[in-house]
Design a protein that fits this description.
It is a single chain. The chain has 24 helices and 27 strands. The strands form 8 sheets. It has a 6-stranded mixed β-sheet with strand order 11-16-15-14-12-13, covered by helices on one side. Strands 19-27-26-21-22 form a 5-stranded mixed β-sheet. Strands 17, 18, 20 and 23 form a 4-stranded antiparallel β-sheet that branches. By secondary structure, the protein is α/β, with parallel strands linked by helices. It starts with 5 loop residues before the first helix and ends with a strand. The site of 1-deoxynojirimycin has 8 residues, from loops.
């Protein structure tokens, strides 16, 4: 195989620079206006004030990292702060903005950033759950509502979307992204950027998006957070970089450098990544912020002392320093020592000022301070209504034997489990400004959706019993109190509730704080005490519906083999309970599809659908020894990418092609008839995958290239057509050239990445 040629990058960078140098000759009028304004402002700024613009302390309500900023007010007055994060509400924002506008010399308005990740006050499902809706309009809507609420609450910048591709559910932050697929992940990233930023940042409810974590954070070795990433360029370009690039193309105003090491240079100090690729090659025009103390962490990464690493980070293309103050305390000295240039500081400062200008902050520093808007926009009826719809769309039916779901609305049910009557966990991790007390739990939801249900409740188990895990979670605010009753007593109450009922609905999973940052796990089973409860309830012989809440794929082989039905609900947000209840009683027919593979065991990780074939692929049946397989497990996942059931059933015809050869500029069309053959109206996500059979480099066994979410009344059929063009067949080859290669291709259409019907076509012949 040919190796990627590093000189190729230099050529790309050189070309890109040449092009951008040519483009600079004709500066559009709007940019000229910005430039004139910023030139004039910068001509008045001291070096300290310029460096001050690059400083982002954390101050206010939340702690989202290991240290907190100090003396912020004083620094604001001295012009040593460019923005703050973790401060919101119109009052709190106004106070700090006033400080800068009345006390600082140049009155440069502050940015106000925050982790508005899956909603601001009205909380939507965790991002992994949003992605399982496969509904780009709903996802954009969730970001739109989040931005409306956040902007009404004083904020003008969110640290979202996270577009890190993740194939390792041990990594707790898989919860914050859109799963394993670069194509779907790209579309979702774009939808979120649009939702946050709107058509113009000057709109009153637009906020800056921030693409994170650039880059490859989701590939942290062993699923351990903050860990190293070492990856070939081909893999990066084809499998991990596309969502970042798509979000850049969508106009995201900022990018956050990731914590991880990339092939020997941590992202925050990686000039190839932040300047050559991001700016020169992709044309990114916004600013780059480090992650929380990401610059300081270059010291333990082993790149030098704080002064050295701060200079390296700036030179690499990091414009803003989150919390660490390495820039604030060392850049001036580095300038004097000629370790960095004035041009570097100017460039970073200019980027910060440009973002503020585009938001309209120079015209009105109090643009985001409006108590009236805060009162009407935040947690409005409409927002909650939309949150319920979005939560419903995110949930995935994994199993439904004997059509045990939906429940009869007058059924006699035992509602069991530590998450069955819980509010605390419903809004999930990274629901920063969310108030769990405003959330609806499952019990409450069921009473709303079907008041005639006959419910006997039993907690059955503590959410977490394991002392070591409990200690860690509670140290970080999980508030999990051990029940006064013993584990045996809790289980026996649950068993007797089940015995008295026709059906048991058991609500289990993780604590919300077992997902998100710094929550890597090596064991993805249900916690032992919860599993013991489930086994005991199952032993009653009653049908068992397992409702899961969790931040990541779990290993559920036993559950899949033993319980009657499984509904994956992630953490559904403020309206979680209503959404779950609507699904359980059949007011809504589930249609979510997995975006990350569910492994059978941790030993299979990393496991993802778009893998390579190997030279000795295993057919899953034979007993031949020398095959790429395990001797103690199937290669197959428990639930594949794209998988999810409905209360109805869908039948697919064989794909029909209008031609069997794609030519440059001449796409072909492939269609299938999908029929709703079951008893309910329902939605289906029709998925198109393509395999490039032979290539100049090895290619995945299949890749998602299109999907359509359709609604079919019972009995109804729809003709679904996809267009396949050359663009879809392109990939980065060994020279990192993005091109389609002539040859034969397989295409697959179906309801998930495993259950598909195949056809083939050729390109360029
Ligand atoms: C660290 C996290 O990695 C990042 O995602 C987040 O935006 C910042 N902390 C700010 O809270």
């Amino acid at each position: 195989m040919r190796r990627p040629n590093p000189l190729f990058f230099l050529a790309v960078v050189f070309l890109a620079n040449t092009v951008s140098a040519q483009q600079k000759k004709t500066v559009p009028a709007a940019d000229q206006k910005i430039n004139t304004f910023i030139n004039s402002l910068m001509s008045k700024m001291t070096v300290d004030e310029k460096i001050g613009q690059l400083n982002l302390p954390a101050v206010g309500f939340d702690v989202t990292g290991p240290v907190l900023s100090e003396g912020v007010d004083e620094k604001i007055e001295k012009g040593l702060v460019g923005g703050v994060f973790n401060t919101f509400t119109p009052q709190a924002v106004e106070k700090l903005q006033k400080l800068v506008m009345t006390k600082s010399r140049l009155k440069i308005p502050l940015l106000f950033g925050y982790d508005v990740i899956h909603g601001h006050k009205t909380i939507f499902p965790i991002p992994l759950g949003l992605s399982t809706s496969w509904d780009l309009d709903l996802i954009e809507k969730s970001a739109r509502i989040a931005a409306r609420e956040a902007s009404a609450d004083g904020l003008n910048w969110t640290f979202s979307p996270m577009v890190d591709i993740a194939r390792d559910p041990r990594w707790g932050r898989i919860a914050e992204g859109s799963g394993e697929d670069p194509y779907l992940g790209s579309l979702i990233g774009v939808a979120m950027v649009k939702g946050y930023q709107t058509s113009s940042l000057s709109n009153k409810d637009a906020i800056l998006a921030c693409i994170k974590h650039f880059a490859l954070y989701g590939a942290a070795e062993a699923g351990r957070d903050y860990n190293t990433t070492d990856m070939s360029l081909i893999k990066m370009y084809n499998e991990y970089l596309p969502p970042y690039k798509a979000a850049v193309d969508a106009g995201a105003a900022s990018v956050m450098a990731s914590f991880n090491d990339i092939n020997g240079t941590p992202a925050t100090a990686n000039r190839w990544l932040l300047t050559d690729l991001l700016r020169s090659n992709w044309g990114f025009k916004g600013f780059v912020v480090s992650d929380y103390t990401g610059i300081n962490e270059l010291v333990p990464h082993g790149l030098g002392d704080l002064k050295t690493v701060s200079a390296k980070a700036l030179a690499a293309g990091t414009d803003m320093d989150m919390v660490g103050e390495g820039f604030l305390t060392t850049l001036k000295q580095s300038l004097q020592d000629k370790k960095i240039t004035m041009q570097m500081i100017d460039l970073a400062c200019r980027r910060m000022l440009e973002a503020k200008y585009k938001l309209g902050l120079f015209a009105d520093p109090y643009k985001y301070v409006n108590e009236e808007r805060a009162k009407t926009e935040i947690l409005s009826q409409q927002n909650r209504f939309d949150a319920k719809n979005i939560a419903e769309a995110s949930m995935v039916l994994l199993k439904n034997d004997n059509q045990v779901l939906p429940l009869q609305k007058k059924a006699k049910i035992a509602l069991i489990g530590p998450l069955a009557d819980d509010k605390r966990n419903m809004i999930g991790n990274w629901s920063a400004a969310g108030d769990w007390k405003k959330a609806i739990g499952v019990m409450e939801g069921l009473k709303n959706a079907a008041p005639d249900l006959d419910i006997t409740y039993a907690k059955g188990a503590n959410l977490v019993d394991d002392a070591a895990i409990l200690k860690q979670l509670n140290a970080n605010g999980a508030d999990i109190a051990a029940d006064e009753k013993s584990a045996d007593k809790l289980i026996s109450e649950a068993v007797s509730a089940a015995n008295k009922s026709d059906i048991a609905v058991v609500v289990l999973g993780e604590s919300a704080l077992m997902g998100g940052e710094a929550t890597s796990r090596t064991n993805l089973d249900l916690l032992p005490n919860q599993k013991a409860l489930l086994k005991a309830v199952n032993a009653t012989g009653k049908p068992v519906v397992l409702v899961l809440m969790n931040s990541r794929p779990l290993t559920l082989e036993w559950e899949d083999a033993n319980v009657t039905a499984i509904l994956e609900t992630w953490f559904g947000g403020t309206e979680a309970g209503n959404a779950i209840a609507d699904i359980l009683v059949g007011n809504y027919n589930p249609a979510g599809k997995l975006t990350s593979t569910f492994p059978r065991s941790v030993g299979q990780i990393p496991i993802y659908y778009n893998h390579k074939n190997t030279g000795r692929p295993y057919d899953g049946i034979s007993n031949e020894k020398y095959k790429s397989r395990y001797i103690d497990s199937s290669n197959d996942p428990l639930y594949p990418f794209g998988y999810g059931l409905s209360y109805t059933s869908f039948q697919y015809s064989a794909p029909q092609l209008n031609k069997t050869a794609v030519k440059a500029g001449q796409p072909i069309q492939v269609s299938v008839d999908v029929q709703n053959t079951g008893k309910y109206d329902g939605q289906e996500v029709v998925q198109l995958y393509i395999q490039d059979i032979y290539g100049s480099i090895t290619r995945p066994v299949k890749e998602l290239k299109g999907f359509q979410k359709i609604f079919l009344k019972k009995g109804e059929s729809k003709h679904v057509t996809f267009t396949i063009d050359e663009q879809m067949l392109k990939f980065f080859n060994a020279d990192l050239k993005f091109a389609a290669e002539p040859g034969d291709f397989n295409l697959f259409i179906g309801s998930n990445s495993r259950d598909v019907k195949a056809a083939s076509f050729s390109f360029g012949r």
